[in-house]
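Give me the fold.
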Amino acid sequence: MPEIRSFPRTRQQPQKRILLIPVFLLLGGTLLLFIPGLQFIGAILSLTGALTVFLVGMVFADLWAAHRRTQQMIKDREERGLVTEEDEDLDEDPFEEVIGDE
């Protein structure tokens, strides 16, 4: 029976450069708004950038929470005197499902 957990275990802190995606979309779209003939594409890119702020923010928050939760679990185990085992499944995809008994 696979273990169900709310967050994937990760020891790596999330990269902050993912937060630049909406900024580039907004800036690129705004620049295209001033070029005649490309205004429609600029408006679409700007709108996409505005909507991506929320999506990228939620993904970053989820990764950050997973990292913090893993660090808290490690700290709690060390305070209780338990040995923190090295998880072999950290290299595996946490969202991969195994179907069948293969």
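The chain has a mean pLDDT of 77.
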